Amino acid sequence: MKIAIDGPAASGKSAVAREVSRRLGIPYLESGLAYRAFGYLILKRKGEVTKVSWEDLKPLFGLVELVPRVGSTEVRVEGKKVEEYVATEEVGGVASLIGAVPEFREEINRYFRKVIGDSQIVVEGRDAGTHIIPEAELKIFLTASPEERARRRVNQLREKGVEADYGEILRRILERDRRDMEREKYPFRPAEDAIVIDTTGRSVEEVVEEVIALARHTK
Ligand code: DC
After folding, report:
1. What is the pLDDT of residues 163-199, one digit of tens each?
2. Ligand 1 near 194 CB (within 6 A)
């Protein structure tokens, strides 16, 4: 079966999708990693970035590769694994700018569909249920309050030894939400047939149990 798990920044979607993939023993495609890998490449080439165009992105296709595995997605840039370099807030911000380029979304979604083929898979992102695998048998949309998402992001960064300012993180989350939802083409929205789960105050394990139960029910 194919499962789409979408949601805004720090809604818990990666932790949930990873665990659902593990529990069901089917591979996991974290689509945001592609946006981040292109963001990382652009930052490396340009230094500071305030706007990204299709002309900047087009020549970079072919340099980024995603390999879905059970419980993880491998991301390579020019053949090198870059998971640790793309996890920063700075790269996330550029990834969000890239998300507003419609030609990029069309091209990267073609790439995702080629990688997925007819395999069973968990696909996670912003538009898995609406554009990457609209044929998915199960579509989940995870939400959480902005304050809870900011707290989670601060804790994630602290676990990695990075000191983070709660107010600044909250501001960036709200800005990213606004940009992702208000872009002219392909705005970020739940699929009409998605099941919305509010994860505020709930543990990853609880949400995973709910998704697994839904998957069993869907089969
Ligand atoms: O899921 P994430 O935080 O790693 O994604 C980073 C950015 O990439 C996000 O702000 C918007 C963009 N993105 C997107 O537009 N569509 C996707 N399917 C995945 C990510």
Report:
1. 889 999 999 899 888 888 888 888 899 999 999 999 9
2. no
DSSP output for 38-57: HHHHHHHHHSS-S---HHHH
C-beta 77 within 6 A of ligand 1: no
Count CA atoms within 13 Å of residue 137 on its CB side: 13
Ligand 1 atom having least distance to the Cα of 100: 15
Residue 128: name the closest of 23, 35, 24 by CA: 35
Question: What's the pLDDT at 88?
Answer: 85
pLDDT, average across residues 117-127: 96
Domains and CATH numbers, the chain: 2-218 (3.40.50.300)
- CA 29 to ligand 1 center in whole angstroms: 13
pLDDT value at 219 more than 70: no
Ligand 1 geometric centre to CA of 209 (Å): 25
* 202 Cα to the center of ligand 1, angstroms: 23
Q: What is the 3-state secondary structure (H, E, C) of 151-174?
A: HHHHHHHHHCCCCCCHHHHHHHHH
- Ligand 1 atom closest to 93 (CA): 10
- Residue 180 in contact with residue 174, Cβ under 8 Å? no
